[in-house]
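Summary of Year 1 activities. Much of the first year was spent building the evaluation harness for sequence design. The harness presents a backbone, in tokenized form, and records the residue chosen at every position. We chose the following record to illustrate the format because it has been used consistently in internal testing since the harness was completed.
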């Protein structure tokens, strides 16, 4: 015996092996699904839809510790970016996370960061003029980067300071450098 699945509002009558209505079809060897299976299918569909929503990305946290500060005067300016083109300045990066904290704070916490690759740049703005002071292109104030890459001429590339964050909270320890 088969099961009847209606595609409209017409009723069908099962008589042996034939169906009296044309809007229904007989499907063999397919028992109707139970409430548990129906719930599982609906839950799966809902999870797929939630995953497709913008802003529903998985997030994590990042703790940045800053060491080797020359003094506690001024501010620390941090830039966290996932865009290699805007590292280390973060000037044209609308999605960059920037923070200015007193130089007495040696730890900065970032919440709700989507999983991915990031880099951090820090400057110690000791005189509070909102920029990195230089003398003939050489920084007069402290600077540092995630993963503490070797500094040659100019800032490091994004790939040298890049780190990946995922499900587990991440920590980065940045050692400040002073050239003058």
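For this record, the design step produced the sequence shown next.
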């Amino acid at each position: 015996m088969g099961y009847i699945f209606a595609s409209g509002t017409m009723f069908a009558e099962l008589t042996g092996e034939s169906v009296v209505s044309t809007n229904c079809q007989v499907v063999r060897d397919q028992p109707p699904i139970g409430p548990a299976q129906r719930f599982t299918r609906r839950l799966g569909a809902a999870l797929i839809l939630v995953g497709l929503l913008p802003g529903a990305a998985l997030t994590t946290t990042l703790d940045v510790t800053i060491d080797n500060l020359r003094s506690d005067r001024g501010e620390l300016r941090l830039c966290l970016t996932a865009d290699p083109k805007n590292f280390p300045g973060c000037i044209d990066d609308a999605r960059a996370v920037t923070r200015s904290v007193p130089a007495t704070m040696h730890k900065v916490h970032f919440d709700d960061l989507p999983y991915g690759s990031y880099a951090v740049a820090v400057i110690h703005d000791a005189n509070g003029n909102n920029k990195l002071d230089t003398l003939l292109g050489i920084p007069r104030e402290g600077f540092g980067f995630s993963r503490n890459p070797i500094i040659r001429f100019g800032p490091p590339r994004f790939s040298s300071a890049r780190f990946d964050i995922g499900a587990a909270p991440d920590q980065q320890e940045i050692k400040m450098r002073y050239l003058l």
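Confidence is low (pLDDT under 50) at residues 1-15. Quantitative recovery figures across the full test set are reported in Table 2.
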